[in-house]
Design a protein that fits this description.
- The structure is a homotrimer of 443-residue chains.
- With 443 residues, chain A is α/β, with parallel strands linked by helices.
- Chain A has 3 domains: 2-75 and 174-364, Aminopeptidase (3-Layer(aba) Sandwich); 78-171, 3-Layer(bba) Sandwich (Glucose Oxidase, domain 1); 379-437.
- Chain A has 13 helices and 16 strands.
- The relative contact order of chain A is 0.14.
- The interface between A and B is medium-sized, with 23 and 19 residues.
């Protein structure tokens, strides 16, 4: 693999800054496009979304029939919802699915009935603590029906009879997921995965879907060391369906990230793989430490997104979770406030840049070896000394060379050096290439 | 040993809460019963105490003759004290052993002499910093005579001649210690030891003696994985005498605790074994972290109680020290204020409960193995999901299942899982049994 | 080597306190003697200094011809400066080398020219932030000429023409360095190195040169376990020249210290070797922790003094850097304020004492083995118990014995014990010798 490493090290794609200066706007536009679709675990909403992503990259869409057993789970029926509302005695709609698809319990069974408010209330979910926001709720594995509503609005409803209508169906069909493979020099893979089962929630997870799609498009024209596998699948059951169909192939996965909630201004947050010291854990930890003083590196726990499946003990893949604000910790989480105002192009762009930086470490890490190990190099003689009068940038440039040369003994990778020097990997990568070009490191 | 483990894991004694709800009161009563005896390193006071403990458990009382060489030490002569007082010129007793046995230097030689106060003073110990308390002092290995007295009282004595009487004798006899073995499924042993050489000091160590005695009685009717050996011996020399007589048997000791000062409201404190990472050190550290925010886990040092002997390099046994307030750090320590008011039933009960919890970990730790390792379990399908609306208790119950299943790969014991999940061992043990009952873990 | 260890352990030199009570004054006097010489990388200034040191110890002075290739470097020409000044139009000297040799750019090419101030300014270095101090600057590897001056003085110069004279020459000759070997029982060596290339800077590094010279003189009459090699060489190129001539001998170096800036009142500071866990790193860390609450232990970095060369990857020697204030962090650094007032006998003496304490650990560390490992020793029986009424010194003396005996199992060196007991090595060494004398440790 040595040659592949060196080849990759000589300028591979993920380190090259995106040629699209307006990448934040482009991701945001794609978020906007897929925001309205009423996704669920299985049904047309997912397929509409996948078709939109396919306009950007050559996505393969796969179907898994309802009823298929997947480890401890069963692929559910497809959910179709045509309309839903609650009408008061005067015939006015007091809740309307067309205004916001969160109003219907996701994967809800159909209902058409008239009942008094006190009875209907048992089927209405609200957030008393956030009385103006509609909660997102789902019931994919137990058949029930229900609505979601702003608490203040529910409180304002007068007693009396209401007509509850959910014009939905739950029928055998299939669960859909999308897959895209960027082929690199090696068949060792980097897995990048985003869940696609939530309806109109912008951060969770239109943001992740859009970011990974445009990252895949960016890679398309590039030569890389690793192959990159993108998966857009419904949470839990979709990831499990992919794993069940690809058990043998999981051996190829060397690194991976689950990506969601990447459009808000919080974090960044990285949750480590179950292994805790996988290379991706070190790479992401390194990048985040240098990206922001507010970054949080969390240990693995068996609660969260699809890293739970990839890291279940039978797979135990080296896959972590990248987010901005951690799921469940921001008030907009799983509410109607997770909308197109909550995500911003600038945050999408910086998330994109951090994920690229993590992949840059994975793609380009190598073990530099100095051509002279005895004594310090005289940088000036090689035209490498950055002169000036002690300005920090100059000092940093010289220190990066000194660190790289001092640790280029064949026992340290560039990430080892970056960590010991406490400098960004990308800066040391650029220094290492310069030192190679001047003959101070082996080519 | 696998079967013993599983057998033990299925409901063994130390985890079962004591059936005696009033355990604190019962321990306290026993403390009261043994408090008055005038114990010393060797003599009738120890035997009276052992006979009282034998009313609770089937204690074996052993005798080691004076003069026996025990490693670097020699069993001292027996001490008998019949009376002791100081009388002033008018014939009034200004100090009386019958009022408090701390008044006599423990193991004091006899004296009957009249002398001026300035001469007598050289033989009177006081605590100038705590002028109303009588200190506890002993002289077991160097012959001398003396009294202990409240400093304020000594200061108030007028000059003049006094009659000093200590009607004691130091004669060849034997050192006594008590031993009790609860036989479990395995002949591997847990050692539980309390020193029995202090006179009327309630916390140090009537409390430890009484607690271990009632714990032994509680175990008597139970099936356990380990055998439990209880030792009630005079400090240092008693522990060494036991070690010298049982050198070969020390190989069986897998875990152990020295127990003293367990009736005050401080701590809890755990001082690690010399090994520093023995299983009992992990178990006690785990239990104490969850028991109290004020708990202190201390590294081993060669100063303290009989853990010094069990942990001397030639034995290096996995034995730690459990206390409430650490010896030497509370003002009542080794004074007449360490009396029956200083120890309380509630503290005795909570110490009992913490020691039971430590033994529960030792007794029940095992390596759970999931019956399906690929993908997360669908808890709802198995009737295990604890529903509700995100209340902490519900979340904790589900998290305990998720952690156990995620780490049930054959490489983690239940204590490993409890530490990684940061949850009490007992909670995970109950969860693991439930998961076994539902077929999600191997039986 | 066991016998050498024991021999060394029985009272070897570096632990014996210097017989010279006025060692600080003696070091200071030597600092004063060598302060005036105008040292540079190569030239007569270095030789004058070495000749003065040779009055104290039997120094060998070695010469390396200009033009010799030394790894990535070339031995420069010798610099000779006879006079230098700037004269104004009236013929008054506004800068005079004879007042302070920092006034001339070290290793400056000759110049004799008249030019307007605005042109001359490009060749004058000042410190705007410290306007009354003359900076120290050098140009050993690129030919240029220049002056150094107080900023305030430069600002006060009226416009007009000035006469700039540097009567210097750069000619082939040789670089000089001094070497002194104290022969011990073993041919394993401790390296002690101080740079000798700076002109009149008292702390950096007349202090290091003087301290090591008097330490070498102190060792001269002593029996030691290790051999001690002292090197007084120009920074970087001098250390490299020594390494190039002694490559095979570097295998003998077991421990080492670079010593500079040891006369100010800051720190102490120890910068670890590149290995990070060399024995000298542990020994110095231990000594400094006990020496001062203000001590700083720093990780290796490839910037600093000659530890950079000794620790370059092809050598990777176990050599750290001992300083008081860390180079570059004190305002007097590399200015005319680093003068004979800045260094003080008391600081030189305490630096000397700390370096001795580090060498004491290196020289005397051994693995004590108890003659009885079972049970605690009865210190009183051996006349070793330090009685009294709990005073801290008494407790500490007994604890030192208890720790040593408890860990004297053949698996712990005396430094291991000192670290675990959190007591100074020298105290435990004295205790261990006492225990050996009483037969409690093997001889």
């Amino acid at each position: 693999m040595k040659s592949a490493v060196v080849e990759g090290g000589a300028g591979s794609a993920p380190c090259a800054p995106s040629r699209e200066a307006d990448i934040g706007d482009k991701i945001y536009q794609l978020v906007k496009d897929i925001f309205p679709f009423c996704r669920s675990v299985a049904g047309e909403g997912v397929r509409e979304t996948l078709r939109r992503l396919k306009q950007e990259i050559d996505l393969v869409i796969r179907e898994v029939p309802s009823g298929t057993e997947v480890y401890d789970w069963t692929i559910p029926r497809e959910w179709t919802v045509r309309d839903a509302f609650i009408r008061n005695a005067s015939g006015d709609k007091v809740l309307d699915f067309r205004a916001c698809n969160l109003h219907v319990l996701n994967h809800s069974a159909p209902i058409h009935a008239r009942m008094p408010l006190r009875e209907l209330r048992d089927h209405i979910f609200t957030l008393p603590d956030q009385p103006d926001r509609i909660p997102y709720r789902k019931s994919a594995y137990a058949e029930s029906w229900g609505f979601c509503m702003a608490h203040r609005q529910l409180m304002a409803l007068p007693d009396g009879d209401y007509e509850a209508v959910i014009d939905s169906s739950l029928e055998d069909g299939s669960l859909s997921y999308g897959e895209y493979l960027h082929v690199g020099a090696s068949d060792e893979e980097v897995l990048l995965s985003s869940h696609i089962c939530h309806p109109s929630l912008a951060n969770d997870n239109c943001s992740g879907l859009a970011l990974l799609t445009l990252l895949a498009r960016h890679l398309a024209g590039q030569r890389t060391r690793y192959s990159y596998r993108f998966i857009f699948a419904p949470g839990t059951i979709g990831a499990l369906a992919w794993l069940a169909r690809n058990e043998a192939n999981t051996k190829r996965i060397r690194h991976g990230l689950v990506v969601s909630c990447v459009g808000d201004g919080g974090g960044p947050t990285y949750k480590k793989s179950r292994r805790g010291s996988a290379f991706v854990d070190r790479a992401a930890g390194h990048v985040l430490r240098h990206a922001s003083p507010g970054s949080a590196i969390l240990d693995f726990s068996p609660y969260g997104y699809d890293e739970r499946q990839f890291c279940s003990p039978g797979f135990n893949l080296p896959v972590g979770l990248f987010q901005r604000s951690l799921f469940g910790t921001f008030p907009e989480y799983h509410t109607s406030a997770d909308n197109l105002d909550f995500v911003q192009p600038e945050h999408l762009a910086s998330s994109y840049s951090m994920i690229q930086a993590i992949l840059c470490v994975i793609e380009n890490n190598f073990t530099p070896v100095g051509t002279l190990l005895k004594g310090e190099r005289q940088l000036g003689r090689h035209g490498l000394y950055v002169g000036g009068d002690g300005a920090p940038a100059m000092q940093s440039a010289n220190m990066a060379m000194l660190w790289t040369l001092n640790l280029a003994d064949g026992n340290h990778t560039l990430l080892d050096i970056a960590e010991r020097a406490d400098m960004p990997f990308a800066e040391l990568l650029s220094v290492a290439r310069r030192l190679q070009a001047h003959g101070l490191l082996e080519p």
